[in-house]
Amino acid sequence: MRNYCKTFIIFYVILFTGNVFGIQGNIISEIFQTKINEPQERIISLKLPLTKPYLNWTFMSKEDFLSGKLVLHITRGNETQEMVIFDNGQLSDEWKENNEQQIQGGEIYFGFISAKKHLTAQGDKLKLELIVKKDLPGIGELQSGILPVGTYKTEGTYSALLDEYDSQIKEQLSKNGEITEQQQKALDIMKSHYNNKAFMDSWQEQWPVKITSEKGWLPEEQAVTLKVTLKQLETLQEQLKNIQSNQERPKTSKTEPKIENTTKISGTVYDEKGEPVSDALVTVPLISEFKGSKTDNDGKFLINVNLERAGVKDFHLLARHKERNLAAIKQIEDSNDNLNLMMLPGVTLSSKVVDPNGSGIQNAKIEPIIWFSNHGGNWNESVEINEKGNFQINALPAGFSYTIIAQADGFGRDDVNIQTSQTPGDKYVLEPMTLKVANLSVSGFVVDENDKPVAKAEILLQGNSLLTRYTVTDRNGKFTIDKIAEGEFRIEADIFETPRLSGHVRAKTGSTNVKIVVSEVDSSGRPVQDHSLINKPLPRIESLFPGFKPEKIRDKNILVCFWDYEQRPSRNSILQLAKQTEKLKEKDIEIIAIQASKIELAPLDKWIQENNITFTIGVIPSDHEKTQFDWGVKSLPWLILTDKYHKVIAEGFGIAELDEKLGTN
Predict the structure, then answer these.
(1) Three-class SS string for 437-503?
(2) How many CB atoms lie within 10 A of CB 122?
(3) Which of 164, 165, 158, 161 is nearest to 4 (CA)?
(4) Cβ–Cβ under 8 Å, residues 381 and 368
(5) What are phi and psi of 363, to 5 degrees?
């Protein structure tokens, strides 16, 4: 009985948070599923088995989609019933779009529902066949996709068969007293949408939606980065699948419902006078898919977020009221119930976006980022910009570092960093942000270690003043990327197959013969021949610093930071170390930072002086890739810590873990 009540609570919460139609059949508890083996009359709810439904991918052309054919086969015993859902542009009279799963902005969201009841039974065998006559391009919340021309088939079972269970729930609830009006309302909604339903979304084989490089709802830079991340995840999932297939799987009597591991956070937002603040937007900046929740008239909020997705340890709640220019921020800890956030006058950042001639760019897009340690995140704010390119961001908490990114169609990108004081209400006027015109190109070719051309390699171009761009090599291993702004950039080539191949170089806009050599890496992008310095002597630092005096580090712990001035996380790590320089010196720890790629020294020197960085910073003189490999560098920024005998005791950790690593010395 305990499980029964718990399942009802899950339904109750979902129903009254505005996601009435968000419940899928495969998370319905077995207590609600039918115990009747004989066929029963039920409405059939059908969900197409596409591979990336979590992308909220929607067909953009209803006409092109329905021009194909969708057929459902239900076999019971020796009899098979064939149901044509749509064919040649016409939806069957016995079927309709599943409005319960419709989302704004698209024609069809995977779903159909029968207009009348059909006999369904637990032993039914289901087959689904879709004929696509035209490539079906779509656009979604994260990325564009295409379901290509072809015939797609799959088999499956019902994920849930439901009968009338309304009376059962009433009986259980009435044991605890009279049913409340709110409970009755929940029961009415459940009865309306989930009585006598047969859900279909447990398909054995799913159909491949192809992710494309076309623009989705995200900015191009984020969309391309997401594409590469998804490819990496798919590679990892395939490897895990192969491992699991070689292991003995434990036998289970039933499948437990999959429940997302979310964290519930509640609290109250109030101002300096102790008065509750209504309509304040509460967000978690590092959780990009969480759009935030507004406080009620009593200043209270309740949110549920999946903190594991971000892959970091420190999270903060950010509460902002833009109209009143109020802000509050609080770190999320183990106990997240009844938190109190006091709002203070917010910091204001203002600047303008201009082209190389100084004219304002009205269609520029502004992305603000707040930094916590070496992690940064935005809060999904749309920043208005006027015809002169001026913009202002208010209601920001004081005492934090911010990065403002500007980009526009036909131009590159620029960013500016600011460390705000602890004084609430301060106003900062930032330097104008100049976007270079994107009228240049770069071209080159990709080869393997045997100098053979590599076709269909995925090319990713990233640079400090450039929008991230993506393309693939042709059959001769050649590529060209047009419409990029002047600057130096990193260009990466990947083959997301088995074995995975990867390689990268640095180049400048206008280069016409860029050569990228790819070699085998693991699923995380690291060279297969992994190289670690743990418990080994530190390589000779003087080889990277002409004139370096070894006595400077004699009998001292050394903290080495490999970084890249052109990467924001790297710059933020150096700033964090700068704040701790004196404290670390007291512990006989010498900080040495090593710029890991070739750059122009003048901007670097200027940035070091502006930020009052006093520890040693050097630049790898040549053969950057080999140097990073010799030092075991797998990503940037990369920290290495030694004992006073210069034996490496830790590597690849975050600045927030430094005190813990020092404790191992």
Answers:
(1) ECCEEEEEEEECCCCCECCCCEEEEEECCEEEEEEECCCCCEEEEEEECCCEEEEEEEECCCCCEEE
(2) 15
(3) 165
(4) yes
(5) -90, 15
At 589, list the tokens.
């720890």
Supply angle C-alpha 549, 551, 552, rounded to 5: 75
The H or E element that residue 66 is part of is: helix 62-66
**Of 539, 609, 554, 541, the residue nearest 578 (C-alpha):** 609
The H or E element that residue 515 is part of is: strand 514-517
How many Cα neighbours within 13 Å face the side chain of 14?
A: 19
Pairing of strands 440-447, 478-484: antiparallel
Q: ∠ CA(339), CA(343), CA(349), 5° rounding?
A: 130
Q: Please state, in angstroms and rounded to a whole number, the distance separating the CA atoms of residues 629 and 527.
A: 9
Which pLDDT score is estimated for 228? Answer: 58
Provide the angle, in degrees to the nearest 10, between the axes of the packed helices 181-194 and 166-174.
160
Contact 544, 618 (CB under 8 A): yes
Nearest-angstrom CA–CA distance, 511 and 445: 11
- CA dist 410 and 427 (Å) reads 31
Give the single-character DSSP code of 52: -
Q: Where are the alpha helices (DSSP H) in 195-290?
A: 220-245
Chain position carrying tokens 């500016």 = 416
**SS3 at position 139:** strand
Q: For position 211, what pLDDT does the model report?
A: 58
How far is the C-alpha of 531 from the C-alpha of 308, rounded, in Å?
Answer: 29
Model pLDDT, residue 143: 45
Strand order in the sheet with 125-132: 90-91, 79-87, 69-76, 125-132, 150-157, 202-203
pTM, two decimal places:
0.49
Helix pair angle (2-15, 166-174), 10° resolution: 110
Two tokens at 557?
């712990």
67: region left, alpha or beta (phi > 0 left; psi from -120 to 50 alpha): alpha
SS3 assignment, position 245: helix
Residue ranges in the chain modelled with pLDDT below 70: 1-33, 51-60, 99-110, 138-145, 164-194, 209-261, 288-290, 307-314, 334-335, 373-374, 522-530, 546, 664-665
Helices (H), 205-272: 220-245
Tokens 């830790």 belong to 650
Cis peptide before 499 (omega within 30 of 0): yes
